[in-house]
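quick one
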Amino acid sequence: MARTFPEKPSCAVIAGSGWGGYSGGDTEKVILFSDLHPSLHTGIPGHQGIFRFVRLEDTIFLFVEGRVHLYEGYGLSEVLIPLTFAYLLGVRIVVLTSASGSLSPFLSPGSVLVLSDQIDWTFIPDFLPRAQFDESLQEIALSCARRFNLEAIRGVYVGVLGPSFETAAEIRMLGYFGGHAVGMSTVKEAKWATALGLKVLGLSLVTNWGTGLSSSSLTHEEVLSLAGLKKPVLHAFLRDLIVEVLHEDCRES
Ligand code: HPA
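structure w/ hypoxanthine:
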């Protein structure tokens, strides 16, 4: 059956924990992951697998919610399907969002890490090139965050397989190795997006201190709870960010 889509989106946002449920703009079309691939669905709270074509001012962007993870037992090719779909639709810029735990006393929960680099600590071979994060997109993200009084710093994201949170010793090690925050997504997508020639921006909401950096013990619910509190400001930030990113893209093309 032939499908019809609204006009071509040039930017896709892949929503991680805390970034979903974007309510700015008008949703013009929704496609379920399971429409593209019967095995793609996710049972993680806070994740539902859909592609939304969202009209924002005079453009359309793609908002992808409910990415699937390696820790759910999906293979690399399945984890990368949403990004591949976005690419096939003509997307040139991808914003990879996530939640993460802080590895540094200087990055407190509620802040956003703007990825300048990453460490792939998943131990899943992939034969993909190294990820590259676009510097001008990082600048745009930092200046947008300042306007919303959102604490944001540039730094290194460490991607682990999960699903369990790290031990205190692992958190110390990842910090010594140069990481600023640790999460369970993004690293493979960033490599694949780079391989596809996309401009990549990585944003990670720091939802908690890594184990051992605070006295409370960590749960997935705690991550979702801080993410929920931050949602309104994150969405306002995302809206401005997308508008600016799309204008920048128009100027360049
Ligand atoms: N570790 C790994 N992934 C995460 C964390 C964490 O502390 N917080 C949110 N996602």
